[in-house]
Amino acid sequence: MEKRMAAAVQAISMDVAEAPDRAEALRIAEALLFAAREPLSVEELRSRMPEGIAVETVLAELGEQYASRGVNLVQVGGKWTFRTAEDLAYLLARDVVEPRKLSRAAMETLAIIAYHQPVTRAEIEEIRGVATSKGTLDTLLETGWVRLRGRRRVPGRPVTYGTTPLFLEHFGLETIDALPGLEELKGAGFLEGRIPPGLSVPTPSDEATLREDEDPLEEDLFEPLIGEADRAGAPVDYAQEQDGGE
Amino acid sequence: MEKRMAAAVQAISMDVAEAPDRAEALRIAEALLFAAREPLSVEELRSRMPEGIAVETVLAELGEQYASRGVNLVQVGGKWTFRTAEDLAYLLARDVVEPRKLSRAAMETLAIIAYHQPVTRAEIEEIRGVATSKGTLDTLLETGWVRLRGRRRVPGRPVTYGTTPLFLEHFGLETIDALPGLEELKGAGFLEGRIPPGLSVPTPSDEATLREDEDPLEEDLFEPLIGEADRAGAPVDYAQEQDGGE
Amino acid sequence: MAAQLPFEDVALAERAEGDPTLHVDVDGFEGPLDLLLELARRQKVDLHRISILALAEQYLAFIEEARRLRLELAADYLVMAAWLAYLKSRLLLPDPPKGDQPSAADLATALAFRLRRLEAIREAAKRLAERPQLGRDVFARGAPEPVEIRKQLRWEATLYDLLSAYARQRQKQLNTRIVMPKRHVWSLVEAREALERLVGLAQDWTVLDSYLTRYMAEPEQRPTVLASALSATLELVKEGKLAVRQERAFAPIWVKSEISRTSDMAEA
């Protein structure tokens, strides 16, 4: 009985003696982990802490203390480090919106795609009277306003381009038919002179369904523009088109 | 009576509603300060925290929570940051790759610049009673703790030196007024004598704005110390000062 | 003075406490003021109550010793020695009646002030150096988590841009289609037919223009009618059907049927 009492007393006194030590051990582990350039292993921590400290216990306690805070103690690759709490990760990223203007070439190409869709690259080039660089089409695809529709059912099976719903949204058009015709353009002062009776705008279609002369894109068309670029290789003089802004 | 009741109820419910917000504000401030590479100003913190948060209150509370820990929230150069506790230096110093120790001459010159800023080289030399080598000033400029402020509006237009925010950060000073022994030096009149009488109180100023008797540095002052060295050329013997330790 | 020795090592050793005779080691001092401060400290009194006279004597003795050992002294040590010798003499002699020069006591006070100031700033430097320094005593987060800047492109284009870009290209096509307005030309054939009728009528000299008036109902027709008529006239003259007369340049052109004349002749 007496022995058990003695044991209990000893346990209590050890607890009392240990308390400040444990608090200090927590402080040391905290500082070491904070200042470390890389996550620390239990062994590394042990080697740098006062002897006789149960590092695992200290880490467990520290982890608990930080669990609900803005910074958590986490284990990565078996080593320990402080990291921003996951739900606050958004604090570590900032979105910077960078306004960018479409180049004149891109704007013209976009306009032709909008009015003449579905339209092939060759047709765009015919209207513009100048070769269309790959960069211009890439840029337009990047804006999300232009998409690859399908392939025209003619020799060479060229890709057809069209606009997206995002295009209508960006330019505030209810439907693609809301694009003004030539007479309207003239009325609005965009065009000058007499419009000959033969000259008119085709009816554009941005319908999801393909036209009769369009085939669906192949499923393996992961990099459609590479094929396009190959095709466009020889006969055109790219130097004449400036897409500087992109 | 009823009105008072209602007010009390409202006060309680506001307290309840505010509690989670404040806890969240603490977490956010904690995460931001932990993650940042450099100390953050109250304004920087405010701009990245939910609106309507009293950032100063949050910082005070956070500082209290961390006061007894291994990592403390401190104010340096008017900004806030976490630092390992001073008393744990003995454990962490093991990491340190022999820090560059300033020579006695450099440390003394740094102190004169800090306490007497804005100060000219001639004034530094007057206090030390010895010529200041170009090497000493170069070393100090290299540390990033000292900068060229402007030119004193006196004949010869000597360059004035002052300290940087990095100086405050390195020595853990809240502001330049926290320099140790500043009051004693001021009280003994040791900081006087360089300022034209009646111009201002002899207090060091590391403000970005120049004093009344300072002109801005010329834009072509790319190699300011060359000019300085020329000026100091003749009468002093540089060999007598050794900055060997750097 | 070719010293390459850092201050701390040599100077402290040379100036060990209780050393009665000061070693002549100028290298250890950072100039005459530093030397004076060290000598003042040896008086073991508060710098406020220091004897400048005693200090001056010690300094001069030090310099004397250095010269005896033929040590090369920097000029400023000698300048200071000369000044202290002067100060010493001033301190020993009664002040001259009030002049422009400051009194010896003022000079001594100023020197004492400089020494106290140097000592104070050295103390401040020491206290500054003792502060917990970043990277030596206190540490920042070893692995800060940088804020990632995510750039988002926002393409800017207005409907106006779109429409003008389209119109610009259609305009090009409009411009390349040249539509010439149909011009009315009075052909040579027409002119000749008209003039052949005239042959029958112009029995006497007739002004060509007045005959052609009916064909020039519209003013823009005038050039073509005149040109063709003239050509046809000359053709008919060549064929002997018409006679032409003009009195001077730009004068009206007269025509007359040749047929009637020949018939006249025949009649005659």
Give structural notes.
The complex is a heterotrimer, with 2 copies of chain A (246 residues) and 1 copy of chain C (268 residues). Chain A has 246 residues and is an alpha+beta fold. Chain A is 43% helix and 15% strand. Chain A is built from 9 helices and 7 strands; from the N terminus they run αααβββαβααββααβα. Chain A has helices spanning 2-35, 42-48, 55-66, 104-116, 121-128, 134-143, 165-171, 182-187, 224-231; strands spanning 71-76, 79-84, 93-101, 119-120, 146-152, 159-163, 214-216. A 4-stranded antiparallel sheet of chain A has the order 4-6-5-7. Chain A has a two-stranded antiparallel ribbon with strand order 1-2. In chain A, helix 1 packs across helix 3 and helix 4 crosses helix 6. The termini of chain A are far apart. The model of chain A is unreliable at 8-17 and 223-246 (pLDDT under 50). By secondary structure, chain C is mostly helical. Chain C has 10 helices and 4 strands. Chain C has helices at 7-14, 32-41, 52-68, 75-92, 104-130, 159-176, 188-201, 208-212, 222-238, 258-267, and strands at 148-156, 206-207, 242-246, 253-257. In chain C, strands 2-4-3 form a 3-stranded antiparallel sheet. In chain C, helix 2 (32-41) crosses helix 5. Residues 1-22 and 263-268 of chain C have low confidence and may be disordered. Chains B and C meet through strand 2, helix 5 and helix 9 of B and helix 2 and helix 5 of C. Strand 3 of chain A pairs parallel with strand 1 of chain C.
